[in-house]
Write a structure and sequence with these properties.
Length: 232
């Protein structure tokens, strides 16, 4: 029996790498993505059960997305898609009214359009395997935090798009997952110069994601802290 295949974007660090490490240790075949080839290769080259295809590129590039789809097909087809790649757009975060329109477009392309486009490309494979889609979202999608308007509205769109996709694709389980604050580079970029060492490590969130992958909860939006206890 072939091992299940997962496509994980933004897998060179943070939550993407933590989830990739755990899935690889459980025997999954992985197709991992990140923008920078060297960083991706260093981060994922030693994953258990490898080598796992590491496909560097920008998720907003249609050719890159097609390559991810094709590589997953060569492995037998994706059972799991994790849309984890994301961008803040700017650091420090500006007020919403001061957000440059070009930066906002980039936020929407990376955080909303690209995940939907990659999901669409992988749909035939995911349908065949009664698969799972995990869209990594944020509490900024539901809370009106100052300076988080661009990122938060993009993630709010991803939340709603996940619900629509779940309604349209009843054979799939489609989740939007708020992981909570984590000790990641992106979180540090959101708070330049501040000490974020009190935030939990990304690995502490992985059990919540596995609860969705392995379980039978209906599609929808979930907070990691509601699925498993994530350290404060």
């Amino acid at each position: 029996m072939n091992s299940p295949v997962a496509v994980i974007t933004g897998a060179s660090q943070g939550l993407g790498l933590a989830l990739a490490t755990e899935l690889a240790s459980r025997g999954w075949q992985l197709v991992v993505d990140a923008r920078h080839a060297d960083l991706l290769a260093r981060a994922t080259g030693g994953l258990p059960g490898g080598p796992h295809p590491a496909v560097a590129g920008d998720v907003t590039d249609p050719a890159h997305r097609r390559e991810l789809v094709d590589v997953a097909a060569e492995l037998g087809g994706a059972s799991l898609l994790v849309n984890n790649a994301s961008t803040l757009g700017a650091s420090p975060l500006p007020a919403f009214a001061d957000l440059d329109p070009a930066t906002y477009l980039r936020l929407l392309e990376v955080n909303l359009v690209a995940p939907l486009a990659l999901t669409a490309g992988l749909l035939p494979q995911l349908r065949r395997h009664d698969g799972v889609v995990l869209n990594i979202t944020s509490d900024a999608s539901v809370e009106p935090y100052e300076t988080w308007g661009g990122y938060g509205s993009a993630k709010a769109g991803l939340d709603h798009a996940s619900r629509v996709l779940a309604a349209e694709e009843p054979r799939l389980r489609v989740y939007a997952v708020d992981p909570g604050d984590m000790r990641t580079q992106m979180h540090q970029d959101a708070f330049p110069g501040e000490d974020i060492s009190d935030r939990p490590e990304p690995a502490t969130v992985v059990p919540a994601l596995l609860e969705l992958v392995d379980g039978d909860l209906p599609g929808g939006r979930y907070r990691a802290s509601d699925l498993v206890r994530v350290p404060a």
